[in-house]
Amino acid sequence: MIEAFVSRPNWAPPDIESKLEALYQLLQDTGFKANTIGKSQAALRSPFEDVKRLMKKCQCTIVLGLPQVFMHSGSIKHVEISNPMTFPTEWNQIETTMSLMLDLPTLVLLHKTVASRGVFDRGAANVFVYEFDVLESDWLQGVRPALRALQEEVGA
Question: How many separate domains does the chain show?
Fold first, then answer.
């Protein structure tokens, strides 16, 4: 099994969370063991320290940029937003950066409804950002090639 750190929020909208079980099954079926603080691993220290220790035990990172922060009004860089926006958890940003700094193969998946900012902004980091939408019936078909590429990168 490939030990994989999975960066994701511990909470996701129920309609999305209910679809993620299929992804975890796909990970297992393709030889990955998912490790996430607060999901598969209990927190023992500060979140940052727990993430660092767990990530160092893993062979790769899978980042799930899921809707976490919902912005219905306001502005970004003094420009009023015209439509509601969603953002991933800030921990996706932290954990992706940590993974890249540790030189781990890193697969970045961004939910279609989430704004591509920070490490999810294409070209901002040395990773390809794959878009997915769990509400589409064939969404796992788009994830499979990315997981195969990650397996090859890990050398499994």
Answer: 1
- Quick: pLDDT tens for 20-77: 999 999 999 999 999 999 888 888 889 999 999 999 999 999 999 999 999 999 998 8
Token pair 């030990």 in the structure block, residue:
3
4: enclosing H helix or E strand: strand 2-7
How many CB atoms are located within 10 Å of the residue 57 CB? 10
Q: What angle do CA 102, 122, 117 make, to 5 degrees?
A: 85
The string of DSSP codes covering 23-92 is: HHHHHHHTTEEEE-BTTTB---S-HHHHHHHHHHH-SEEEEEE---EEE-S-EETTEE-SS-EEE--HHH
Helix (H, G, I), strand (E, B) or coil at 138: coil
pTM higher than the cut 0.85: yes
Distance CA 73, CA 53 (A): 38
The range of the structural domain enclosing residue 46 comes to 2-154
CATH code of 55's domain:
3.40.50.450
